[in-house]
């Protein structure tokens, strides 16, 4: 019982720290200053919101999406956030003359009680590789309680992509390559094996020229129908190797559909966003053109510690001319740097 009480207190502390982090105006500067992100939401809201609509903005932060919706003609916007930044959002609504349309409510989205169901639920819930922060759990619960039957979700769909990467620079900077050479004249090779047992998923700028083949669609979800648990998954994908090289890791990114004509992509081929891409390092192994990687990717919730960061696992087998040539299994602690 004592251990359980301590775990519950730790979870409460983590939740409090999470919401307090969003009181930092620098966080909102990063997001609002991300032109690709913010302008995509603006265009999508102007396309979707109809005069007289009711809108729920989950995790409103500075309130910019709520203000976009009000300016687009929504009759009533409910803007909810547990962070202290909500008081600033309320001021922004007032000075922009939209405070009569936008009702700012401080609290957890899961606890929200609205006077009516809404036509549209909008939220920018995506963390790194979309899944980090696990905010989708709150959004899906708020959807089930507050969205009208047939109402609209924004984003409406999520896709995750994965690709094998050959990049010696990323291997040295974000993978285990640092330990392969002497460190200031000292042998640090044991650190390589240690790190392989607890790898870190890092944000990175991936170069398409480093891809060893086409990306695979790892996950696709309909946000109007998916449950929160659907974002934790086990998925098998096949990756085809199109040129000889060395797999130093796997690159990942996400796309979300915001409206019928607006998609926000974090692909390396799309305009840069603050999410960048994600790099999953592995122990390097050689591949040849024509090799096939049969890969299982798992995303699981953490049972303890910072539950806002999922656990990632990769297990894969490489086949050459129909015969197995390499097998590997690595786990990731879900952290992002």
Q: How would you describe the overall organization of this protein?
A:
The protein is an alpha/beta fold and 337 residues long. It has 2 domains: 2-124, 3-Layer(aba) Sandwich (Rossmann fold), CATH 3.40.50; 158-332, Hnrnp arginine n-methyltransferase1 (Distorted Sandwich), CATH 2.70.160. Helix content is 26%, strand content 33%. The chain has helices spanning 2-21, 25-32, 35-48, 64-71, 85-95, 136-146, 168-173, 189-196; strands at 54-58, 76-81, 102-106, 118-122, 147-154, 157-165, 202-204, 216-222, 233-240, 245-257, 263-265, 277-287, 292-300, 311-320, 323-332. The strands form 3 sheets. Strands 6, 7, 8, 10, 11 and 12 form a 6-stranded antiparallel sheet that branches. A 5-stranded parallel sheet has the order 3-2-1-4-5, with helices on both faces. Strands 9-13-14-15 form a 4-stranded antiparallel sheet, with no helix packed on it. Helix 6 (136-146) links the parallel strand 4 and strand 5 (147-154). Helix 3 runs parallel beside helix 4.
Break the fold down into its secondary structure elements and pairings.
Layout: H1 2-21, H2 25-32, H3 35-48, E1 54-58, H4 64-71, E2 76-81, H5 85-95, E3 102-106, E4 118-122, H6 136-146, E5 147-154, E6 157-165, H7 168-173, H8 189-196, E7 202-204, E8 216-222, E9 233-240, E10 245-257, E11 263-265, E12 277-287, E13 292-300, E14 311-320, E15 323-332
Parallel strand pairs: 1-2, 1-4, 2-3, 4-5
Antiparallel strand pairs: 6-8, 6-10, 7-12, 9-13, 10-11, 10-12, 13-14, 14-15
Helix pairs in contact: 3-4
